[in-house]
Amino acid sequence: MLDDREDDDAGGPESLRRGAAEVPDQSLIAAAVLGDRDAFEAIVMRYGPDMYRFTRNLLSDSGAAEEVVQDAFVAAWKGLENFRGASSLRTWLFSLVTHKVVDHRRRRAIAPAEDWVFERPDHDPSGDPERQAASSGFMAALDAALSELPYRQRSAWLLREVEGMTHVEIGQIMTMSPGAVRGQLQRARTTLSARMSTWR
């Protein structure tokens, strides 16, 4: 278990979350491989939200995103003992969820994007209705432009610009060289720049 202390204050889900936040990935992996479900739950809590955001942005379907992320974590639980640390745990998990997204796209026709790639701000601090309308219009235009990108370009752009990953990490996730990643990003940025030119 993550924490064998018998102190009453150490028990409960909140304590688990606090303790797990301080545990290195490698320790969580080692414990999970031995069957420690608390350790694996800590991995899910650590990386699940980012994986869900990335998947939802690709599929534009919250329900499908939840299903795909769940499938990815099932695969991670079954395959964790084969994780050799050639990449970070986060990169490996994103690789799994990316493959599950591809599987999902093969099984179903993808509906037009309806969700926002970025969360809409609840309000503009300036309180200026005209500025709020302009911001909403920009986000709608950006989301529409992203939805029209080829899948690999959109994936690379989201991993880089939203998830903050390096070219090497993206290459590991998408099984391509860093140079190929740069090419995908350049094409995505060129297309987005042209589509968003009216907002400059």
What does this structure look like?
- The structure is a single chain.
- The protein is elongated.
- The protein has two domains: 20-108, RNA polymerase sigma factor, region 2, helix turn helix motif (Rna Polymerase Sigma Factor, Chain: A); 113-120 and 130-199, Winged helix-like DNA-binding domain superfamily/Winged helix DNA-binding domain (Arc Repressor Mutant, subunit A, Orthogonal Bundle), CATH 1.10.10.10.
- The chain has nine helices and no strands.
- The protein has helices at residues 13-20, 25-33, 37-59, 62-79, 89-107, 129-147, 151-162, 167-174, 178-195.
- Helices cover 67% and strands 0% of the residues.
- Belongs to the sigma-70 factor family. ECF subfamily.
Question: Considering DSSP H and I runs of 4 or more, what fraction of the residues is helical?
Answer: 55-70%
Query: Rg from C-alpha positions?
Result: 20 Å
Describe the sheet with the most strands: none
Helix/strand structural class:
mainly alpha
The CATH architecture of the largest domain can be given as Orthogonal Bundle
The CATH class of the largest domain is identified as Mainly Alpha
| CATH fold-level assignment of the largest domain | Rna Polymerase Sigma Factor, Chain: A
Number of strands: 0
Q: What is the average of the pLDDT values? A: 82
Spatial shape: elongated
Q: What is the ordering of alpha helices and beta strands? A: HHHHHHHHH
What fraction strand?
A: under 5%
What's the total helix number? 9
Structurally, how many domains make up the residues?
A: 2
Keywords: DNA-binding, Sigma factor, Transcription, Transcription regulation
Domain RNA polymerase sigma factor 70 region 4 type: 141-192
Domain RNA polymerase sigma-70 region: 44-109
GO molecular function: DNA binding; sigma factor activity
